[in-house]
Amino acid sequence: MHLPSLLGCLSGALLLAGALAAQGEHMPASRSLEAKIEAASMADRTGARVDPSLQFTDERGYPYQLQQVFPGKRPVVLLLGYYRCPRMCGQVMEAAFRALSEVDLEPGQDYQVLSVSIDPRETPAIARERKDAFVGKLAKVGAADGWRVLTGDEGPIRQLTDTVGFRYYWSEHQGQYAHPPAIVFLTPEGAVGRVIVNTEFDPADLHLALVEVSQGRLGGLWDQVRLNCLTFDPRTNTYSLHAMTIMRVAGAATIAALAGMIVFMLRRERRRPQVAPA
Predict the structure, then answer these.
(1) Which of 41, 51, 131, 190 is most buried by its number of CB atoms within 10 A?
(2) CATH 3.40.30.10 at 55-216, yes or no
(3) Cα 239 from Cα 230, distance rounded (Å)
């Protein structure tokens, strides 16, 4: 083969290899990003029931089995994360406590708060520091007794997070856990009833979530009316009027208006004086 032809073949091969390499780098990166987003998100586990035999250790150093709250008489607000998290965990906890402080329900009396660390390396001492730093942000009389801060081994942590759909992973590049910002609302029997994913929370949404998962133990008539009229939208993570609900309300109002008009016309017709025949 002549030298120019050989050089041309080598150049073409190098260009082709470069193009293939660039394409290969681009495609796995996209798939890798999608996989990471999915790996740090909430899966829908509505109705799944946690194992009450799972054992952890609370901030006082005492053994804590989930059977202390499941089954019980109160719903549970479950906060998952880790206590040495540099940013998001504290932000979510502070936002959750700020909203719960405005809810007309009392921790320890109407509901229980459980924080569980996803990092098996964290200790009860670290959990105690976390509670001391944040308990004042839950402006309720029963905050200290109504909130337990737990640590545990890898097995119980994984079993609990898998049950409620809390997906996370350790990022070596960032040196921290990647996980979703979420509040999990559990029924008194320990079943997943509602999940709100956000870094800011509306007190009205938390109130309705607690009433909803309490299975009739909390709330009044007005709360039940609101739950019947409002639908939880997982896209916006808030309770709002659904289009079908609006149509039903409009239809009911139209029927009521027509019925009222018919009744009014019949009464007016009856009140007219009867003319005697000639």
Answers:
(1) 190
(2) yes
(3) 6
